[in-house]
Amino acid sequence: MRILLAGGAGAIGRELTPALVAAGHEVWATSRSAAKGSVIAGAGGHPLVMDVYDVASIDAAFEAARPDVLLHELTDLGEYDVAANSRIRIEGTSALLDAAAGHGVERVIAQSISWVVADGDSLAEETEPLRPGIAPGAPELEQAVLAQPHGVVLRYGQFYGPGTWRSSQTPATPEALRLALAPMAEVSSFVHVADAAAATVLALGWPGGVVNVVDDEPAIAAEWMPVLAAALGAPSPEVPASLPHGRPISNALARSRGFAPRFASWREGFVSPDGGVVRSATAL
């Protein structure tokens, strides 16, 4: 397939391009900066500069790629700017989908999140709606993508691994470590970024709808925080006294469709030399 990957230089985009190429697909991957083109080209993709808020720029990307599939992996979380990320989910998604319709692209796969469904103790399946206001723009993104002739929404778990906040490259500054170790709820579900990319490649053949992409072991904060802190060479922080309960997320649907994460649990991924989280002895 010919694939237009919007967000090719981000954490998952860097994993997706080589995975897609290895699966035999042709990939045109976008970034906002020409300077990142070498990263995309080095992974086997065709780099494109695209501004998702510039209609002409988006049309030029579609004209160059002539895609069979649009993969929407755009985020704006570099500075943890919630408003900017909400804008890209709403305005950016709308602009991409308008261009896809105009260029006859019916198959769309987009990034969403799994961890903002209603709190509870039972495993959350894909029928659970996202709670409004917790992740601004995510419900609107899902609704827009699912309205496409063939729209797939991937609700990823919390990322870790190369290029994410939870990686061996996380700066050893108090603020960076705070973000890496901050629990969003008492119960969380994780996924290694390379496993998320592998699921996304599989999703090219999945029917439309929502699919959770998480590992096999939901975790409470008191369990995962010390393990991640040790991997990052940081002191183990205290678990906040008051947290939303959260919800364990089921990956049964993705598993039934062939998803087999290399790191079935964060317990393995955080401490594996191949997980991209453990700092080298020289870095500690």
UniProtKB/TrEMBL annotation:
InterPro entries the record matches: Epimerase_deHydtase (IPR001509), NAD(P)-bd_dom_sf (IPR036291), NAD(P)-dependent_oxidoreduct (IPR051783)
A molecular-function term among this protein's GO annotations: aldehyde dehydrogenase (NAD+) activity
Pfam families given in the database record: Epimerase
GO CC annotation: cytoplasm
Domain NAD-dependent epimerase/dehydratase: 3-206
Protein name per its UniProtKB record: NAD(P)-dependent oxidoreductase
